[in-house]
Design a protein that fits this description.
Low-confidence stretches: 373-377
Mean pLDDT: 80
CATH architecture of the largest domain: Up-down Bundle
Strand content: under 5%
Radius of gyration: 25 Å
Helix content: over 70%
Number of domains: 2
Shape: elongated
Number of strands: 0
Largest sheet: none
């Protein structure tokens, strides 16, 4: 029977995001209501980054921090290769779509990696989970400072960001950095409670993002976002996102081979070095860009987020299957071993067939070892 192809399922959070955008498009908050939602969104961002700081386990980071070469390679993908591709994507797409959407492509390229999904995919694929925790956490820790600096350098410096540099610094300090540091400093006090209630805290993460998205798209609708964005623009964003992700994954594989990374570390580099965080990106956009522009800027990030989940889910399944195949026992060698295995499973081998069966098993063993790189040829 033909093997069924299993496609990755749609992340339920994407449906909530789409629903929030539809709600903001049909029933946008206006006037005093929008001001109230903006204040609630700011408070949600503070709470979100406070919890991020409190959840950052120093023990987990220290457990994998010795693998410095892997972590530097991951940071290079996240904060060097991605920004280069983002600059190219902004330059090319800015010729055919709204400049704010093109800025959104560059903005997503400047964000830190994801944490939860990077670790989950690494575990699913059989990678080095301790190193993944360290790389993903380090990426987010560095991103609190580095992403705003890169935004100031590549976006606000040319006036595309819609907000002055001093205002961005103040917002980052008060809404992101200080709550993050406060949460981490309080981890010895609240860390155990945070660790015990991670499942309860996930809705706080996601509801904070949804609140910011609703506030941002309400302002965007008031500024005519859907008169500026059409199917062609969404198609260009999808193609550009797919091209960025494909190039990063391809370069990732080449870099892992050239560096001689073991399979477990190569998996970490793949999943921590090829993804961007929606949970961090949406609040950062709210702090770094003018309210009327946030909805346009985060739209490319929402598209890239779901695309990366689909692709990484497929890659994790492929890597897991390859790992299981590599761990499978080799065929028995020699006629005696073949007869013993056949007897154990109740498979009779006629005497005249035994030399041929043993020869074929030896041939299969040599091929398997050659594929693993352990053979003589």
């Amino acid at each position: 029977m033909a093997k069924r192809i299993k496609f990755p399922s749609v992340d339920p959070f994407l449906l909530w995001l789409v629903g929030t955008v539809v709600l903001a498009s049909l029933l946008p908050a206006r006037g005093a209501a929008l001001t109230a939602f903006d204040m609630a969104a700011d408070a949600a961002i503070v709470l979100l980054f406070f919890l991020h700081g409190a959840k950052l386990s120093r023990e987990a980071v220290l457990a994998g921090i010795g693998n410095w070469r892997l972590h530097l390679m991951t940071l290079a993908f996240t904060y060097a290769l991605f920004p280069v591709l983002g600059l190219a994507a902004e330059s090319l797409t800015g010729l055919v779509i709204d400049p704010s959407l093109a800025v959104g492509l560059l903005f997503l390229a400047l964000l830190p990696s994801t944490v939860q999904s990077s670790i989950a995919f690494t575990a699913m694929a059989g990678g080095n989970v301790a190193a993944a925790v360290c790389s993903a956490s380090l990426s987010n820790l560095v991103g609190i400072v580095l992403t705003p600096l890169l935004v100031a350098l590549f976006i606000h410096s040319n006036g595309a960001g819609g907000m002055d540099g001093l205002g961005s610094v103040q917002k980052i300090a008060t809404q992101l950095l200080l709550p993050f540091v406060a949460g981490h400093l309080l981890r010895p006090v609240i860390g155990k409670w945070i660790d015990r209630h991670k499942k309860l805290l996930q809705p706080v993460d996601r509801s904070s993002v949804l609140l910011v998205v609703y506030s941002a798209f309400s302002a965007a609708v008031a500024n005519g976002v859907w008169q500026r964005v059409g199917p062609f623009d969404l198609g260009v964003l999808l193609v550009a996102s797919a091209a960025i992700l494909a190039i990063v994954i391809a370069v990732n594989g080449v870099a892992a081979r050239l560096a001689g990374l073991p399979r477990e570390d190569a998996i970490v580099l793949l999943f921590c070095g090829s993804k961007k965080s929606l949970v961090s990106g949406v609040p950062m956009a709210g702090a770094l860009f003018a309210p009327a522009q946030v909805g346009m800027v985060i739209l490319p990030l929402m598209i890239f987020h779901q695309l990366q989940l689909f692709v990484c889910a497929w890659l994790a399944g492929r890597d897991r299957a390859e790992g299981e195949a590599a761990a499978a026992p080799l065929p028995p060698q020699g006629e005696a071993a073949a007869l013993a295995r056949a007897e154990a499973i109740g498979l009779p081998i006629p005497e005249e067939c035994r030399p041929g069966v043993a020869a074929n098993l030896d041939l299969l063993t040599r091929h398997a070892r050659n594929l693993e790189g352990d053979g003589d040829t």
